[in-house]
Amino acid sequence: MAKNSARNYSQLTIKRLYGLSRNNCAFPSCPVELLSSEDETNFSNICHIEDANPSLHKSDRYNPNMTDDERRDFKNLLLLCPNHHIETNDIEKYTVKVLRDMKRNHESQTKQKLSGKDLIGKHPSALNTVIGHIGTDFFGDNLPDEPITAPNPELKIQFNHVIQYRPIIEEYSAYQGRLSKIYDEIERIGSTKKELVLRNIKKLYLKEKGKYNSFDEIKENADSIFSNVESELWELIDKSDNTNNDLPIEAIEISLLVIMVDAFMRCNILEEPPKA
Ligand SMILES: [Zn+2]
Ligand SMILES: [Zn+2]
To answer: I need a labelling partner for 171 at 20 to 30 A (CA). Which of 20, 118, 185, 259 fits?
Structure first.
C-alpha cells in the first residue's frame, strides 16, 4: 500500500501513541499485547478515527474537510490489534464518536494506572477517612476540652485474658468519647464510614476467631488476635488510595489504636462478657 501523507506519522506522534497505549489494544478489555518483549511480533495496527482516505472503509468516517496533517495527527489515531481493527471497520457501530471515546478512555486508564490510581487495584478506604479526621482533630490545635466519659474496659480485658494490649486499651479507651464525636461529625456529612469501619474490623476479628475451636483458645490467643487484626488494618491503610500522606506516621498509629480500642469496647474485637 502506498503511503499517502495521511499515513506519514511524525516520530512524536508514534511515540505518543505507543507510550500511552501501555502496549494494549485500545478496544475495551482486549487482552492482546501489541508488541512482544520476546521477539519481533507486532500486533499493532495504527487506525484512523476519521479515515485516511475515502475508499478504505467505503465509509462516512472519511471527512473531506480534514487536512492530511489532521488525519495523521495523534488526536485522530488509535492503536488496535488486527481483529479489532477489522471489527471497528463496522462504521454503523463504530462511529467517529465511539472511536474517540475509546481512545480517550484507554489513554486516561493509562494515566490512572501510572499514577497508582488503578481503579481495579486501589480504592479509598473508610478507615483512612476516619484516621484523617482523628489525625487532624486530636493532634491539631482545636482540642475540645469537654470531659471524657468512657466505660470501664476492665471487665472485657479480664474476660478475654488480654495481657499485652491491656495498657494500650486502658490508655486509649479514654478517647472513646472524642472518637464518638468524630464519627457523628463524619455521619453528618452524610456518610456511613463508622458502620463500614466497625463492620470491617468485626469481619477481620471473625476471620481470626475462625482459627480457634473454643473460647478458651481465643483467650489464650487474645493478644495475637488483636495484633493480627492490627496488621490487617495496616495493610488496608497502605493499600488504599486515600492515604493520609500529610499526617505523621505516629498520628496514624495512634489514630488506628483509638479506633481499635473503641471497636474492642463495642465488642467488634474479642468476646462480650455476659451481662451481669
Ligand atoms: Zn482503520
Ligand atoms: Zn484488540
So the answer is: 185
Rounded Cα distance, 215 and 227, in Å: 18
Q: Are 128 and 252 in contact (CB under 8 A)?
A: no
User: In this structure, what C-alpha cell is assigned to residue 139?
Assistant: 493532634
What Rg value do the Cα atoms of the chain yield, rounded?
Answer: 29
Cβ neighbour number for residue 191 with a 10 Å cutoff: 13
Give the number of the ligand closest to the Cα of residue 28.
2
User: What spacing in Å lies between the alpha carbon of 92 and ligand 2's midpoint?
Assistant: 19
The ligand minimizing its distance to the Cα of 21 is 2
Q: Which ligand is nearest to the CA of 71?
A: 1
The model's pTM is: 0.56
Residue 29, C-alpha cell as written in the block = 478489555
- Distance between CA atoms of residues 257 and 173, nearest Å: 9
Encoded amino acid at 157, one letter: I
> How confident is the model over 172-229, as pLDDT tens digits?
888 888 899 889 888 887 778 899 999 999 999 999 999 999 999 999 999 999 999 9
Task: Identify whether the C-beta of residue 52 lies closer than 8 Å to the C-beta of residue 3.
Answer: no
Residue 23 Cα to ligand 1 midpoint, Å, equals 18
One-letter amino acid at 156 equals: K
Q: Which residue has the cell 512482544?
A: 36
Ligand nearest to the CA of 26: 2
